[in-house]
Amino acid sequence: MAKLLAGLGTSHVPSIAAALDKGLRDSAEWKPFFDGYIPAQKWVADHKPDIAVVVYNDHGNSFFLDRVPTLALGVAENYRPADEGWGPRAVPDFQGADDFAWHLADRMVEGHFDPLICRELDVDHGLQVPMELVFGRPEAWPVKVVPILINTIQYPIPTPQRMWDLGRLLRRAIESYPTDEKVLVMGTGGLSHQLQGARAGFINPTADREWIARIGSDPERYRTMSREDYVEEFGSEGAELIMWLVMRGCMDETVNTLFDHYFAPASMTGAGMVLLENMR
Ligand code: DHB
Ligand code: FE
């Protein structure tokens, strides 16, 4: 059966991609941010996942406000990087784990999670940036991907508890897939940021650092918070952090936090990462 290798939570801020595109990786401003990912990159390269399940939100690039699925699943053989208005990026297409994704579709519907099924999808910075942060800039990505898209843009967004329950279901679905492939689950978004309204520019490094410190050891607090609590504590777009709960819900109750990293601000956002491993 397939194996859950690890869970990774990470920001997906678009300026990270812009910094890489402009050759600023080693600039004084960006180097400390990127260097914080090196241990996790090495661990993933050593442990060689076959499939990355990437939980992210589209930002008006593949779904606009006229059609917003609360939950969507990619089952395509291939995904193009979305052009978000700056022209095509030098990022390879993503190969889909389509057979595995159809298995997830079956298990999700059976477990009363009914996704929009996407046979064609351009993937935006929500997926591109985490892949670049973990796998660098390869000629071809070393893993196949399954995009799982959560609406965190148009209210009502799903509840933290619902995200956790989706994670529990995904764990069972991964472990009932009849190959010996290794699966890395990535929860993306955050950390604190607000791009709109009276609090535009709001970040909350104290809450972010606590999130990074506690999402592995004590996720209960975050699972039971309301959506309004997320907006208040992390900002309206910081509420993207609910997507990390899908990843955390996949993992055992007790996990080992292998690596973590926090940096603020990246653009107007608290940014960071955790890599979690089950104990047994
Ligand atoms: C920005 C966009 C994002 O999707 C995000 O998660 C953080 C920051 C931005 O445009 O700055
Ligand atoms: Fe985002």
Automatic annotation (TrEMBL):
Transmembrane segments: none
Alphabetized UniProt keyword annotations: Dioxygenase, Oxidoreductase
Superkingdom per UniProt: Bacteria
Any GO MF annotation of the entry: dioxygenase activity
One Pfam family this sequence matches: LigB
Keyword Transcription appears in the UniProt entry: no
Gene3D superfamilies per the UniProt record, alphabetical: LigB-like
Residue span, Extradiol ring-cleavage dioxygenase class III enzyme subunit B domain: 8-266
Protein name: Class III extradiol dioxygenase family protein
Species per Swiss-Prot/TrEMBL record: Roseinatronobacter alkalisoli
Lineage: Bacteria, Pseudomonadati, Pseudomonadota, Alphaproteobacteria, Rhodobacterales
